[in-house]
Design a protein that fits this description.
Helix content: 25-40%
Strand content: 15-25%
Structural class: alpha/beta
Shape: globular
CATH class of the largest domain: Alpha Beta
Strand order of the largest sheet: 2-1-3-10-4-13
Number of domains: 2
Largest sheet: 6 strands, mixed
Number of helices: 16
CATH topology of the largest domain: D-Maltodextrin-Binding Protein, domain 2
CATH architecture of the largest domain: 3-Layer(aba) Sandwich
């Protein structure tokens, strides 16, 4: 078989696993792809390399293709999200000092109480909270602001959000540069192990089905290389399906730990894959259901409704015309290419490409190409729902 060489940029996070597994277990090779992975130091570096054609594909934060297509940050570039690579997988952590102050308000860390935790944050600190996130256009920041803005005592001037690359988050906490952070694993676990931080919430407690990472590609390149894009989707679909089978977790951990990939010990990587999260040194791990998903419940599907939600947040931040931003965002999430790649090989797909986000409080049966499939839960912490088709829907 003639192999097609492709280059894909990624950041060293547990949720880059589909790319690494696709390469190491030859799912990409089976599709005729010579997949070359290129580790990047930051999201801005990855963004610029994709924009200037130095890489073909990219492991991206889900808002990045939409922000780039809207001309926000960096060089304006039309970028498509071919599929979702992972759902959830982020953690929110605080410094030891802030934890002590919160405990004095009567708060205890149950790792699943967003509203009580946000109330305690603002009761504990009279000065602005300095919060690290990996990138300005990230689901991390969107979840944080959606959550904190609903808290009693919130005011915009009471938080300061700064950008810190994921591998530097633990150092920033240890040096006292941050009070708080939101980051993808394994870097929250690393911060617990090396900075004395405590984890207070999984991102999934704010939005139970938040699209975290996507496979990004320049729109014009995708048009010229349609078959290569479909082959990449198939390879990664096989990799995500493999990753969501618990018996494969030990091997996945071992592969990710290798020096050419995450270059971290197994005990830093294993929590995200087993959903056993240690929130503080010396405490037993907590079982955190649906902490990180790669495949189950149509996790890979690029829902147009999720693109609309992201567009609305970006519109609020940057005073954009909302309908136009939604139109651009929905064009980015390529459910059409995803269906074209996977329908011929019998992958079960939802019949619709949009849903009312937040409406499923529990796993729910819905129509699919093979009859029925289970979706959800996808609820927001405050019970809000987002129906992009209803013009009078309140914002989260």
């Amino acid at each position: 078989m003639k192999m097609t060489p492709i280059h894909c940029g990624y950041l060293p996070l547990v949720d880059c696993a589909p790319l690494i597994i696709a390469q190491e277990l030859r799912f990409a090779a089976e599709e005729g792809l010579d997949l070359q992975l290129m580790k990047q130091p930051s999201w801005s570096a990855l963004r610029d390399r994709l924009a200037f054609g130095q890489i073909d594909f990219a492991h991206m934060l889900s808002p990045m293709p939409i922000a780039m297509s809207l001309g926000l940050g960096g060089v304006a570039t039309r970028v498509d999200a071919l599929m979702v690579l992972s759902v959830n997988g982020t953690v929110i952590g605080i410094s030891a000092d802030l934890e002590r102050q919160m405990q004095q308000t009567g708060w205890t860390n149950s790792f699943d109480a967003p509203q009580a935790t946000s109330r305690a944050l603002f009761e504990a600190s009279s000065r602005p909270l300095r919060i690290g996130v990996p990138f300005p256009f990230s689901m991390h920041r969107m979840l944080l602001e959606t959550w904190l803005s609903q808290a009693p005592g919130y005011a915009q001037e009471r938080i300061e959000i700064v950008t810190v690359p994921p591998p530097q988050m633990a150092d920033a906490m240890r040096e006292g540069a941050l009070d708080m952070f939101c980051v993808g694993e394994p870097w929250g676990t690393v911060a617990v192990q090396h900075s004395g931080a405590s984890l207070i919430l999984p991102g999934s407690s704010i939005w139970a089905c938040a699209p975290e990472k996507v496979l990004g590609v320049r729109h014009d390149w995708a048009a010229e290389n349609n078959q290569t894009c479909q082959a990449m989707i198939r390879a990664l679909s096989k990799a995500t399906h493999w990753l969501d089978q618990p018996q494969n977790t030990p091997l996945a951990t071992s592969i990710l730990a290798r020096s050419q990939h995450l270059d971290l010990p197994d005990h830093a990587i294993d929590p995200a894959l087993t959903h056993q999260i240690t929130t503080k040194l010396g405490q037993p791990p907590r079982q955190t259901d649906r902490f990180l998903r790669f495949y189950q419940s149509a996790a890979n599907f690029p829902w147009l409704s999720q693109a609309s939600w992201i567009a609305d947040v970006l519109s609020d931040w940057h005073a954009l015309e909302n309908d136009q931003a939604r139109q651009i965002a929905r064009a980015c999430f390529r459910s059409d290419l995803y269906r074209a790649a996977l329908a011929p090989i019998g992958v079960d797909l939802p019949k619709t490409s949009e849903k009312v986000e937040g409406a499923m409080k529990a796993p729910t049966l819905t129509s699919s190409t093979m009859g029925q499939m289970i979706l959800g839960p996808d609820e927001f912490f405050n019970g809000a729902v987002f129906d992009f088709s209803a013009s009078d829907m309140p914002k989260n």
